[in-house]
Structure formats: structure tokens, C-alpha cells
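Re-run requested by the PI after the first attempt was lost when the workstation crashed. Everything re-entered from the original request form. Ligand of interest: 4'-deoxy-4'-aminopyridoxal-5'-phosphate.
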Amino acid sequence: MFDQLEGNIWLDGKIIPWNSAKVHIMTHALHYGTSVYEGIRSRNTTLFRAPLHYRRFQQSAAFLDFEVPYSISTLVNATQLLLDAGHYNFGYIRALAWCGSKSMVVSHRNSNVHTAIMIWERPMPYPPQIYQHGVTLHLASWRRPCPSSAPVHSKASGLYMISAMAKRRAELEGFDDAILLDTKDRIAEASSSNIFFVREGTLQTPFPHSFLKGLTRAFVLEQAKEEGIPVIENDIYMSDMPSMEACFLTGTAVGILPVASVRTAECLYQFKPDSITKRLQILHQKAFCIF
Ligand code: PMP
């Protein structure tokens, strides 16, 4: 279905029809996971924080020892061109850079790098009542890898095998999403969003030892500072859960999403969106034109 959408795709500097954007089966990234991506939001023709996303895109590739062969301004301009030519209400931009078919040995030393940008209509993933009451999570059996085993600060497609497995298992068990711990038992994040807690008027979020430092997470930290909400970035364990009063997830695709409950084998922790969560949701909805 996603190969049949209307519109155009920017591929290696050219704008081509959506269904002409194909890759060969001998693509290095398909065999060895040598690709990185970005997800950016737009509202009508306004792009949000695109230079920051494209800077992370380049850094993600650098973690994997390859280079996106375009500058940030070229990527931003290409995205704006696609956006202006289409009719997107809640647009989602996906940029992808991957090692191509020039070489088929493990090392991508001699690979060619392709870059593509595509946009599709992608409203907020949950209905409004979920944004009021929250999603249900369970504790994943999969963990975020330790930073010496994988490029944990890269938005590397290969790492999303872990996210896909965690999210799929959560769905199979009847939950919306999963919380993943790291290899040192610290709470890390959900399958594709960062996590925050509120305790005694203070915002708490895990220190990013083993996960992507989300741009929505950065937005929340900025806003908290402006609003005078104290923030603690530290190591948080499941044993801290009983003292947490509210919990929410942050991400480009999900926005600011309250958590209603977290299920573990032994316990059910329940949360209600508090005034800090609601205030941050309003600020985020305003800044990203979500209404
Ligand atoms: N962690 C993971 C694994 C993600 O995929 C995402 C979504 N990009 C995030 C966190 C949140 O990052 P951001 O706010 O930049 O979208």
C-alpha cells in the first residue's frame, strides 16, 4: 500500500513519481542494515525543526561511518519543495540514507550512498481521548543494547528491529506500547519515543545512556526551563515507579502522549496526566500546530 501513494519522492537530487522510487534487491542496506532515517512533522506547508532533524540525520550516518552526500540546506530545501507541491494537512516527512548496490561485502567501504525524502499524510496516531487519558504499556523483555554494542545515539534503521519486536509483542499482549530497560536495568524509553515522569512537581527523565536523545524530549526540556518546572535527568529504575505520579512519552510521531499504566509481571502501575503533563501538551500542540 505504501508503494502506491500519490505524490513525488526526492531521490538522489531528483524529484520522481512516488511509485518509481525503487531499490534493487542487491542493496547493501537490505542485507546488512546500513541505513539511517529521520522523521519530521509538517502542518500544511510549515516544516518543524527541519535543520535540527537533518543535523541528526547526518550525525546518525556518521555513527555508522558513512556520509549523507547532501548539506542540511539542500535537504531542507528539497523537503520544502515536496511539501509545497503536495497537499498535506498533518504531513510526516521520512528521510532515508542507505548504502546501495555498488558493493556486496560486509564492509560498506566501497558502497554508494543514496538519499531519499518522502512525505505522507500521518495524523496523530491515537484518538483525542487517548491524549487525555493515556496509553497502556508493558515491560518489554527486549532491552536497549549497551552503547558499546550498537550505535545507540544514531537513528539507525537496524536498531529498529528491537523497536519493532518490542512494539509487536506489546500489541500481541494487548498493550499499546512497551517500556524498554537498558542492560543495567535502568528505564530507557518506549519502542519509538522517550519517557518522562512527574514526581512532587519535578520532571524526571532517564539520562540518555543507551537511547536516542529525541528532539521532542529536547523541546520538553526547553519548555520546562522556560516555565520554571524543575527537571532531573538521571537513572530511573522500575523500583522508582511507585513514587512517580504521572508519566508521558515524547516523539515526533506521537507528540506528547500520557501513559495510563505500566504492566510488569508482578505489578500494575497507574498514572493520571497531571497539570505539568497537560501544560507541556498544550505548549507542544501550540508550537507544532496540533489542534
Ligand atoms: N526513541 C526512539 C527509538 C525513536 O524512534 C524516537 C522517534 N524518533 C524517539 C526516541 C523520539 O525522538 P524524536 O522526539 O526526535 O522524534
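Saved to the shared folder this time. The pocket of 4'-deoxy-4'-aminopyridoxal-5'-phosphate is lined by residues 39, 163, 189, 192-194, 211-212, 214-217, 250-252 (CB under 6 Å).
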